[in-house]
């Protein structure tokens, strides 16, 4: 197995869907692994340590949201793409709240799915970081180290998803600049991101829960009513 070849874990209980995704994944020079239920997915996850997970929301034993939440609780930063037949906006928002990085609904274009896979992997590819893009922030009890990709609060390591980290580092680079949701999507998230603006709100909410002493009265990530968000001076 090539060390530089990314491993993709596909979790779905529909055999035909797995076969289609597996074919496209392998044709794009990734390793494809698959599981048909939640328990199998969790066991396989720890065995192969995948670089990205494509996770169906509706599984016969454990639903995708609970699997996603479990992985985040276990401090995994692996990118997760939710795959589901649910099309309600609230379902998508719930998926992001659980820690998903992207969301695609069935029926879907396999080519679009692969584009999203590649976009997510690009964003978390540490080896491609350019030195002039490196940035570190230290203020009071919050430390952001863009060399090690670590965030610490009061000395404690904070686990962030790739999207949460990218939003935080983007805002911290430009303190007091007010970012609209559209700007955060364009700058911090993938150019292929096609989610709702409210997805940014979900990521901001999660960030506040993790780095703020009082998420309802945030010091670092402040809301500018009617415009967006800014990284405040504490």
UniProtKB/TrEMBL annotation:
The keyword Transcription regulation applies. SUPFAM superfamilies: C-terminal effector domain of the bipartite response regulators, CheY-like. The modification 4-aspartylphosphate is found at residue 56. One of its GO terms (molecular function) is phosphorelay response regulator activity. Gene3D superfamilies: 3.40.50.2300, 6.10.250.690, Winged helix-like DNA-binding domain superfamily/Winged helix DNA-binding domain. Residues 7-121 form the Response regulatory domain. Residues 134-233 form the OmpR/PhoB-type domain. SMART domains: REC, Trans_reg_C. Pfam families: Response_reg, Trans_reg_C. Residues 134-233 bind DNA. One of its GO terms (cellular component) is cytosol. GO terms for biological process: regulation of DNA-templated transcription. Keywords: DNA-binding, Phosphoprotein, Transcription, Transcription regulation, Two-component regulatory system. May play the central regulatory role in sporulation. It may be an element of the effector pathway responsible for the activation of sporulation genes in response to nutritional stress. Spo0A may act in concert with spo0H (a sigma factor) to control the expression of some genes that are critical to the sporulation process. This is Stage 0 sporulation protein A homolog. It comes from Clostridium pasteurianum DSM 525 = ATCC 6013. The lineage of its organism: Bacteria, Bacillati, Bacillota, Clostridia, Eubacteriales.
